[in-house]
Amino acid sequence: MISQNKFSWKKSGYFLAIIFLGLFFFWLRINKNLEKKEIIVTSSDELPAMVPEKKAETKIEIIPEKKLPTEILIDVPFTSQAPFGKWDAYHEEACEEASLVMLEYFLQNKKLTPALAEKEIQALIAYEIKTTKNYEDSTAEELAKLGENYYKIKNLRVVYDFTLEDLKKYLAQKKPIIIPAAGRLLGNPNFKAPGPLYHNLVLVGYTDDIIITNDPGTRKGKSYKYNIKTVYNAIHDFTGDKNKIEKGRKAMIVLE
User: Fold this and answer.
1) Would you give per-residue pLDDT tens digits along the chain (256 residues)?
2) Where are the domains of the chain?
3) 95-107 vs 114-132: helix crossing angle, rounded to 10
């Protein structure tokens, strides 16, 4: 008969052996799985083909140049250089003064009557005679200086050698422009023939290929229309000699 203690020892031995075998087979299985997962790289040729990551496309937005309005008309009060039709020696030469008066009354947003215009023109002529001894003809720089000194307009600037398209660009800012011109190149039928050799007028707008002006050289000059090429070709600054006006530079007086 086998004793109880001996039997218990054998049972414990069997149980430990079973546990050991179980742990051994479990280790073998884990090791096998690790071998399957291991990747040994011997050269770059053995690397699996890599699909490059697709980058998001960058769209470059091209912003077109701001288009000019198709038409512009600036509300600038008008006066002829002879508000009451008196074309004497003073008024024959008063296109610069009349242009400056129109600009000033535009800036002040004031109504311009013939009486007021005549008073302003006479005052400007008197000021010029007093300060420069000359009222007849002015360069663009001299006229801008007169506007600064007499009316205290601080933002006048003379621009030279501009393009035809620049006329529209400045007018599109809704600011009138004063231009000096070879008057006879304008071909205005309302001028007393053959027209002035040297002339000044105010540009107040455009539509298509038409420039709209306040032309003080005629009583019919309010919103008077010229072909834009005609105006551009006629623009010439005063050279000191009216007979050589067509040799003058392109110049215009603008508001900054």
Assistant:
1) 444 454 454 555 555 656 666 665 555 565 555 444 444 443 344 444 444 454 444 343 433 457 899 999 999 999 999 999 999 999 999 999 999 999 999 999 999 999 999 999 999 999 999 999 889 999 999 999 999 999 999 999 999 999 999 999 999 999 999 999 999 999 999 999 999 999 999 999 999 999 999 999 999 999 999 999 999 999 999 999 999 999 999 999 999 8
2) 72-255
3) 120
251 phi and psi angles, rounded to 5 deg: -145, 145
| Cβ-based neighbour number of residue 228 at 10 Å | 19
**Distance separating alpha carbons of residues 95 and 68, to the nearest angstrom:** 30
> CA 158 to CA 253: how far, in whole Å?
5
Q: Which residues contact 250 (CB under 8 A, 6 or more apart)?
A: 160, 161, 162, 235, 236, 237
According to DSSP, the β-strands at 71-73 and 156-160 are: unpaired
- In angstroms, rounded to a whole number, what is the distance separating the alpha carbons of residues 75 and 165? 21
Report the interhelical angle of 140-150 vs 95-107 (nearest 10°): 50
Q: List, in sequence order, the alpha helices (H) in the chain.
A: 4-37, 89-92, 95-107, 114-132, 140-150, 164-171, 183-186, 228-234
CATH of 72-255, one of 3.90.70.10, 3.40.50.800, 1.10.150.910, 2.40.40.20: 3.90.70.10
